[in-house]
Design goal:
By secondary structure, the chain is of the alpha/beta class. Helix content is about 35%, strand content about 20%. The N and C termini lie far apart (about 55 Å).
Length: about 350
């Protein structure tokens, strides 16, 4: 376990950022006065209930079909963190939007909670397309997807095998597979990876025999002098009133923390393989110029087919684009979806 703790510590330390005044302009819990919100539930192909918030412009003409956008939250978060904000801002521009909780997180089904399961996460987005396609005021031929942080890699995984997703955008994307296999900038050694996998399997067996569930470090619960800057960045969002949110029945101290025994599923997750097959459907990758995660958007952009665009936001870190409305390029997203969802 000592080697695993060291490896995780090095992984976290590698995620360094120089963001300052991190909460400036933040508005995660934004409530629009020009859109309606409805809690909805639908089943994915695994017959698990996926829960989401459906947003529509207040004066939406339900006798006409409208384009729709599905929004996925950061890895370890829930729909109330970042994705509700994006969904409302895009609904204000005339879209029907749906912010979902991924399976095993928030209000959606999945036992045990906090399970890593990228295949099921991707299916949640296809299930959201299923749901929206049955709504009479949604144009089933014009549904887009937007993934924030880890959901960026999940929407890419989904779009490769679901051509109904007509426009794909990501913001502050993580390739969750590469992040766990290699760390940022390939800072994690093969030996550290092997140690993580070994510990995960040992923990899986311990839980099979009735042992307590163990979790990998997500966001720290307290800061001290040795806390890496990247953890301070996440702490400022997840552990303060800025973005902190604890779903019903959860423990605040465990929010954002995935199950240790399930990390192998990310080690075996390669969302960018065959990304070029999404073409000719358009893709937009948005990242901050200071973001520790920028390398993933750059990698996806390099591999993707046309049409594609990499949009770099000046003076923005990774978490800045979760909720800092003075930095998030909502106009860029609106133009992308209006152009590509007729």
């Amino acid at each position: 376990m000592k080697n695993v703790t060291l490896a995780l510590g090095l992984l976290i330390s590698a995620f360094a950022s120089s963001a300052a005044d991190m909460s400036h302009g933040a508005d995660n819990f934004y409530k629009s006065d020009s859109v309606t919100q409805q809690r909805v539930s639908f089943k994915n192909q695994y017959q698990m209930n996926v829960v989401g918030n459906l947003f529509m412009p207040e004066r939406l003409d339900k006798n006409t079909k409208h384009p729709a956008i599905i929004v996925g939250h950061p890895m370890g978060a829930v729909k109330e963190q970042s994705s509700n904000l994006y969904a409302q801002k895009l609904a204000e521009q005339g879209f029907v939007t749906l912010a979902i909780d991924l399976s095993f997180w928030g209000e959606s089904d999945g036992k045990p909670g906090h399970m890593i399961s990228p295949e099921i996460y991707a299916d949640d987005f296809s299930a959201a397309v299923d749901y929206l396609s049955t709504q009479p005021w949604v144009d089933a031929e014009n549904i887009g997807v937007l993934g924030i942080c880890g959901s960026g890699s999940f929407v890419i995984s989904a779009a490769k095998i679901d051509p109904r997703m007509k426009a794909i955008a990501t913001v502050s994307m993580y390739d969750m597979g590469a992040a766990f296999r290699n760390g940022l900038k390939h800072s994690q050694t093969v030996e550290q990876r092997e140690a993580l996998i070994k510990t995960a399997i040992e923990q899986r067996f311990a839980e099979y025999k009735g042992g307590d569930t163990a979790y990998i470090p997500g966001t720290v619960n307290e800061l001290d002098d040795s806390t890496p800057e990247i953890q301070r960045e996440f702490f400022d969002f997840y552990r303060t009133s800025r973005g902190g949110y604890t779903p019903k029945g959860e423990k605040e101290e465990l929010t954002t923390k995935p199950m240790l025994s399930s990390i192998g599923k990310f080690m075996n997750f390669y969302p960018f393989n065959d990304i070029e097959t999404i073409s000719p459907r358009p893709m937009l990758f948005i990242a901050g110029d200071r973001a520790h995660s920028k390398e993933f958007s750059e990698d996806a952009y390099q591999r993707a087919g046309q049409p594609k665009e990499l949009y770099i936001v000046p003076n923005a870190g990774h978490v800045d684009l979760y909720d800092r409305t003075d930095l998030i390029p909502f106009n860029k997203l609106t133009a992308f979806f209006k152009t590509n969802l007729k």
